[in-house]
Specification:
The protein is built from six helices and 68 strands. By secondary structure, the protein is mainly beta. The two termini are about 60 Å apart.
Length: about 900
């Protein structure tokens, strides 16, 4: 069934809110003008007015000139700021939409903006909107604008080049009648290429300019809109033009300055050429949207002949993303467009079918096909075969951005998705507003703009929010579309807005210091300080035996070890005293601790540290004179202390701005002074809780609570039907909007939004220790049957099971490291065969008694006989 709308809905708006208000006032204005005209034609009044105008003829001429200038848009006339040509410094090669084959919107080699703040703003003429994405040309940023009025529905626009560091105007493009533009500029060397027009424009042009001066080189008029962003490759420009298909031009004009058309792939076969093409080698990949398109084709770059075609169930407005090293092409698709949801776009489609005589059954089938839907497809670059497909709840309009180990894309369903190259979701973040623009993927962060006009900086692995800021101060108005995709370069984010011009926001900041947040590195911690991937093998470096005393147990370590950089903080019993010791982690075996600070009572939980201060709690529930201590990390001297209740669990969780303590109530303390910031005493906490995104999740014996991190106020609580949460299993913020907790009988994934159960998995026996998060997997070790299980974070399915694992595990993003019969084994999480990781000499070292931990170049093992350090060696 052909699903073609009779009236095509615009991709971008023709009228914006203020202009609609002007239209509403137009009858009143006309009435007033009419009254003035009637008065004017009275002879006496007319004669007085003529004499007045003649006396003020010079002023009248000036006013008329100004009026004409404003009406014609003096600000849109081509001009250069200052004299001389602009010098484009750097790698001037932003050759397609989002800059490169992988559509990352990122200029490599520049730092990530890790803090918010507006660096400069460029206000466009007449406050024109910016729908296009900026292009980076060395130290310059080039972008296009769009302004429409009730009297000019095709609108006007301008192509601008600014100094990327100061926001100063360098040149205006030399095309005085440029239409309102949705296409983004692309740059290669001395050339800038761009389309023009919004969706209803029927004779838009593809134009090429001089990147140094803005002078027009040539322009070609099509028979449709040119919303497609061109691509430059091999001395040619490849551009789409809506119903007019795709074309390839030579970059240089002919001897008469006219464009040289190389080939034309007509619109009758390549309908709705609105997406941005991509070029790799002698392949051109072109997307197709509505009007009988629905797919992507691979064309020969030299001849335009089709090599293969993929038909999709939905329109493809997202340009193809190429990941050459994986031989993949990625496309996004779905129902709906940049202005309308699927539901809003559906009526025109159904009206068209009715006009063609569709039956009720055919209309019902059409409703199913035209409803909310979205997908991303991974396609073999050579053959066009489908490798995998990933479904979202609504359309994917922006580009799929390909990072080193995952792809990122936003959806109208309000989520940003992180999916690995096997098509598995590894993280999801909810913007609570549609995401229409493309994400920018920098070195360690992802930048995304929501339809509500907020720019977010997210951690690239976890999709945790690092910072956020609104892009305009005015309240959102009807027609405000935030569809300009952000671009990252020079330690800034460049992004266009509907009413606030082009913004340069964000700045690099020194990275936050690494902290050891608590037990095993914090809730869900994998035992590593930092995120370095562990090598295939490690080798023993040194062994420090315990100084045994006759009245001591086999192992004097009383609690979990904390790591930081070149130091290990070990809870010990030494010479009959309980305390904390700092041991160096150098290449040579330490002979003794740097310091040992007695604590009176044993330290049974892991300390926490930021490298400057070490935080610890003393004693077990039931002991008296328990304390929370803050020690100087270099000397072991006391900085502050406060009492801890006799019944308190005593767990700690350190963040960069708070120390959360499970006392008789949950306390948030100032790490510098130990003074309370807030106290939550609705129930006694069963753990220290976990902190993320300004939220704290904590459990009591039978309930789960989500608190506001700043105030401690309860956002929601959820009582579990049957639960025993007193074993100290800390709840975990797991990404995807999920909180994972363990009871004695179940593992539960709860919605971070309201605490509702998303999935649950039974436990045959309780856990040995806390939950470990490994990428998109939940890893647990059961107690009596000694089985390690890896569950899918998405739905709780059992993905992997390893028998005979008696200890909590060390893990990285691809494997877990567990004690086997002959030593530690590396168990890949993709199901590959386990391999030896480090041979264990039990006769020399004794049994391992705690989870191994990794920091820097070392893996640390606590044994019954001493402390073993293994060196992480470089791969040969």
């Amino acid at each position: 069934m052909e699903l073609v709308p009779h009236i095509t809905v615009g991709v971008v708006p023709i009228l914006i809110g203020p202009l609609q208000a002007l239209l509403a006032l137009l009858p009143v204005i006309l009435l007033a003008l009419g009254s003035m005209a009637v008065a004017f034609f009275k002879p006496r009044n007319a004669w007085v007015l003529v004499k007045l105008l003649w006396r003020q003829k010079l002023a009248v001429v000036v006013l008329v000139g100004l009026g004409v200038g404003v009406w014609m848009g003096v600000g849109l006339l081509p001009a250069r700021a200052g004299g001389g040509d602009a010098v484009l410094v750097g790698d001037v090669n932003w050759f397609n939409f989002r800059g490169g084959l992988q559509r990352r919107g990122y200029h490599p080699g520049t730092p990530d903006p890790t803090a918010p703040g507006v660096q400069w703003t460029y206000r466009t003429a007449n406050d024109a909107a910016i729908y296009a994405s900026p292009a980076i040309a060395g130290d310059y940023v080039i972008f296009a604008t769009a302004r429409v009025t009730p009297f000019d529905p095709t609108g006007s626009g301008e192509l601008l080049c600014l100094n990327a560091h100061t926001g100063e105007l360098v040149w205006r493009g030399g095309l005085s009648d440029l239409r309102a533009t949705f296409s983004s500029p692309v740059v290669q060397g001395d050339y800038v290429a761009i389309g023009e027009g919004l969706h209803l424009t029927r004779d838009s042009r593809v134009s090429v300019f001089n990147s140094r001066t803005g002078a027009l080189r040539w322009s070609y008029r099509t028979q449709s809109h040119a919303e497609s962003t061109p691509a430059i490759a091999g001395g040619r420009v490849f551009a789409g033009a809506g119903r007019d298909g795709y074309r390839a031009f030579d970059l240089e004009p002919d001897a008469n300055g006219k464009p040289k058309l190389h080939w034309h792939a007509p619109g009758a076969r390549y309908m709705d050429a609105s997406g941005s093409p991509n070029v790799y080698g002698d392949h051109v990949f072109v997307p197709m949207g509505r009007w009988g398109g629905l797919g992507m084709a691979c064309l020969d770059a030299d001849s335009g002949e089709e090599r293969w075609r993929v038909t999709t169930p939905y329109p493809v407005f997202s340009g193809p993303t190429i990941v050459a090293e994986r031989n993949l092409v990625l496309i996004g698709m779905g129902n709906g467009n940049f202005v309308q949801t699927a539901e809003q776009a559906m009526p025109s489609q159904l009206d068209y079918l009715r006009a063609k005589g569709a039956t009720d059954q055919e209309l019902e089938e059409a409703r199913e096909l035209l409803g909310p839907a979205g997908e991303v497809w991974a396609i073999d670059l050579t053959t066009g075969d489908l490798r995998w497909r990933f479904a979202s709840q609504r359309t994917v309009l922006g580009q799929v951005a390909a990072g080193p180990d995952a792809v990122y894309f936003g959806s109208r369903d309000g989520h940003l998705y992180r999916v690995d190259y096997q098509g598995r979701e590894t993280a999801r973040w909810n913007a609570r507003s549609p995401i229409i623009a493309s994400p920018a993927v920098a070195e360690d962060h992802v930048y995304v703009v929501s339809a509500s006009g907020v720019l977010y900086c997210l951690d690239a692995r976890s999709l945790r929010v690092v910072w956020e800021m609104p892009l305009q101060r005015q309240p959102l108005a009807a027609g405000d579309l935030f569809i300009s995709s952000p671009v990252v370069a020079h330690g800034r984010v460049y992004v266009g807005t509907p009413r606030s011009g082009l913004l340069a926001v964000g700045k690099p900041t020194p990275p936050l210091p690494l902290i050891w947040a608590g037990e095993h590195g914090g809730p869900g911690g994998d035992g590593r300080l930092g995120t370095s991937t562990l090598p295939q093998q490690v080798e023993p470096l040194w062994f420090l035996p315990w100084q045994h005393k006759p009245d001591m147990a086999d192992c004097p370590v009383t609690g979990s070890v904390a790591l930081h950089a070149d130091a290990a903080f070990v809870p010990l019993q030494q010479d009959g005293q309980f305390g904390l010791a700092r041991l160096p982690l150098g290449p040579d075996a330490p002979t003794q601790p740097v310091w040992f600070t007695p604590t009176g009572l044993p330290v049974v939980h892991s300390p926490a540290t930021d490298g400057h201060t070490v935080f610890l709690s003393t004693g077990r529930p039931g002991d008296t004179n328990r304390r929370v201590l803050a020690l100087d990390a270099s000397t072991g001297s006391l900085r502050w202390e406060r009492p801890l209740h006799a019944t308190a669990p005593g767990f700690l969780h350190l963040t960069h701005h708070a120390l959360v303590v499970a006392d008789e109530a949950l306390l948030s303390l100032d790490p510098a002074s130990g003074q309370p910031q807030w106290r939550w005493d609705q129930a006694q906490p069963a753990s220290a809780g976990a902190v993320r995104h300004g939220r704290v999740v904590v459990t009591s014996k039978d309930s789960v609570y989500l608190l506001d991190e700043a105030s401690g106020s309860v956002l929601w609580s959820q009582r579990l039907e049957e639960a025993n949460l007193t074993a100290g299993h800390t709840p975990v913020f797991a990404g995807r909007g999920l909180i994972v907790i363990a009871t004695d009988t179940r593992i539960l994934a709860l919605s971070e939004l309201d605490g509702a159960t998303v999935w649950e998995a039974p436990l045959a026996t309780p856990l040995v220790d806390s939950i470990v998060l490994v990428d998109d997997r939940v890893v647990v070790v059961r107690d009596r049957d000694e089985h390690l299980s890896a569950l899918s974070l998405q739905d709780g399915r059992l993905l992997l099971e390893v028998p005979q694992v008696s200890l909590p595990v060390l893990a990285d993003e691809s494997a877990v490291y567990v004690m086997g019969r002959r030593g530690f084994q590396r168990v890949p999480l993709d199901g590959a065969r386990p391999a030896g990781w480090m041979r264990w000499e039990e006769d020399d070292w004794g049994l391992a008694t705690a989870r191994p931990l990794a920091a820097g170049y070392f893996v640390l093992f606590v044994t019954e006989r001493g402390l073993l350090a293994a060196e992480i060696r470089s791969e040969p």
